[in-house]
Amino acid sequence: MLTPAFRFAPSPNGRLHLGHAYSALLNAAEAERVGGRFLVRIEDIDTTRCTPELAKACLEDLAWLSLAWEEPVRFQSRHLVEYRAALAKLDALGLLYACTCTRREIAETADPARRDAEGQVLYPGTCREAGHSRDAPHALRLDMQRACALLNAPLTFTELGEGEVIADPAAWGDVILARRDIGTSYHIAVVVDDALQGISHVVRGRDLFAATAIHRLLQHLLGLPVPLYRHHALIGDETGRKLSKTAGDRSLASLREAGVTPEEIRRELGF
Q: What is the DSSP string of 208-236?
């Protein structure tokens, strides 16, 4: 039997806050509880927002919390060739097409009443039949209808504490699997990495629950193993709003500078 493996996978596009600390501590605690492995992965494929300095700061914040993880840390930016190989497999199945639409063009042509699980308007499929050349800048979208036609049974996943959940990737429409600027996407990178790293338990925030449908579809299409899932509640501020890097919520670094100790943070978060 394979050793259980858990991972905390931050994106270094800002400093970590209490919500990140909770997720990291929970993954480490669960790994220890079952005698498993705890890994840290730096999800830095977005090179326009992620920086080496912020990646270094993420690891420093986790070490300050007295967390220990397996080395080496996996940096996604160093493994783009593996994500492109996965995309090539999907392309060989005839499931990808080039999309040259801008956000403005999509907003002008999409039906505002049709939205995905995150509330964004669904892509109207403008480029699906256009057969655009891939010489010009483009994104690669998944032809969701063709992809779902390859399923021989409903997709499901196990949500720990809730049981079997039916996944509905079609609700997301033709998602982008390779951004025009970086040549890949979070969805591709995360399923490839979880498989390569032997992740048995994906423990992450509830805000990613709906996206699991996309990940289950990609796992099926690429022949990848299916981990168990647990989507934990999000840490909010005093008003209940989810903590956010972009909103300027207090970082672990600022708490440390204010004299807060790792022990105090652990107690506050229930660890």
A: GTTTHHHHHHHHHHHT----EEEEEPPPB
Q: Name all domains of the chain by residue range, CATH numbers in brackets.
A: 1-78+237-271 (3.40.50.620), 80-235 (3.40.50.620)
pLDDT tens, 234-243? 987 655 556 6
Tokens of 7: 């991972």
Q: Distance between CA atoms of 223 and 169, rounded to whole angstroms? A: 17
Token pair of 235, please?
Answer: 């840490």
146-155 in b/e burial notation, b at 16+ Cβ within 10 A?
ebeeeeeeeb
**Tens of pLDDT, residues 171-182:** 999 999 999 999
Q: Please name which of 259, 253, 210, 254 lies closest in space to residue 231, comparing C-alpha atoms.
A: 210
The length of the chain is: 271
- Average pLDDT over the chain reads 94
| Alpha carbon 145 to chain centroid, angstroms | 23
* Element containing residue 32 per DSSP (H, E): helix 18-33
pTM of the model: 0.94
pLDDT digits (tens, 9 = 90+) for 223-271: 999 999 999 999 876 555 566 655 456 899 999 999 999 999 999 999 9
**Which of 160, 174, 264 is closest to 214 using CA atoms?**
174
Question: Do the beta carbons of residue 256 and residue 21 sit within 8 Å?
Answer: no
Kindly indicate the confidence band of residue 131, based on its pLDDT and cuts at 50, 70 and 90. Answer: confident
Cβ neighbors of 76 (< 8 A, separation 6 or more) are: 41, 42, 43, 44, 45, 83, 189, 193
